[in-house]
Amino acid sequence: MAPPVPWLVILCTGALALFAGPALAASGADSVAxxxxxxxxxxxxxxxxxxxxxxxxAVPGARVxxxxxxxxxxxxxxxxxxxxxxxxxxxxxMSGEVKTFFDNWQxxxxxxxxxxxxxxxxxxxxxxxxxxxxxxxxxLTILAAMLGNQxxxxxxxxxxxxxxxxxxxxxxxxxxxxxxxxxxxxxxxxVAVLVKRGARK
Length: 201
Ligand SMILES: Cc1cc2nc3c(=O)[nH]c(=O)nc-3n(C[C@H](O)[C@H](O)[C@H](O)COP(=O)(O)O)c2cc1C
What we know:
Layout: H1 4-29, E1 32-38, H2 44-57, E2 62-68, H3 74-78, E3 82-90, E4 93-94, H4 96-107, E5 121-128, H5 135-148, E6 152-153, E7 162-165, H6 175-200
Parallel strand pairs: 1-2, 1-3, 3-5, 5-6, 5-7
Antiparallel strand pairs: 3-4
Helix pairs in contact: 2-6
């Protein structure tokens, strides 16, 4: 018959492992990388981007990076769990800089045919001068590029993402629009945590 001491050691180790479980889950295991990237000439989309990043940072375990689209590297993209892209509305669509960013996924970073962005969480935000000047089309075309890359597309802040009207009767970005941007960031980080947990099972 085995001496009782090893059993005691096994029991204690098991109890310690159980105790450590939730703490591990809250730190390392649920840590997600969220990349917020945007184009902005006059600062409106950048202001929204900062609020999106703030919202994502509020989720425990989220590590958040904020970059202009032109500065994003292949490593930034592939090491992220979630990507949130913001654009000003240019002629009722995403700006050329944001379109070039997406085109570079293939031209510079070679995402296809492996679908290297597959199953990462994606979302969009936009600012436009006019209330009905194309913000929703802009967000939809960003989401379409993500869908084409087999990403998991989500919304938040509004039905298609967060948006702000910046000219005419509604100059700049107001508190309600910033709150929508924070809401989008929070939702994306939350979903990224859920996807990562699900993938571990
Ligand atoms: C070339 C160009 C085209 C634009 N086209 C539109 C448009 O079609 N609809 C709209 O609502 N605003 C349009 N705008 C206004 C911008 O979308 C708006 O000012 C935006 O908030 C600018 O973002 P930013 O400050 O981040 O550069 C256009 C601006 C430029 C420079």
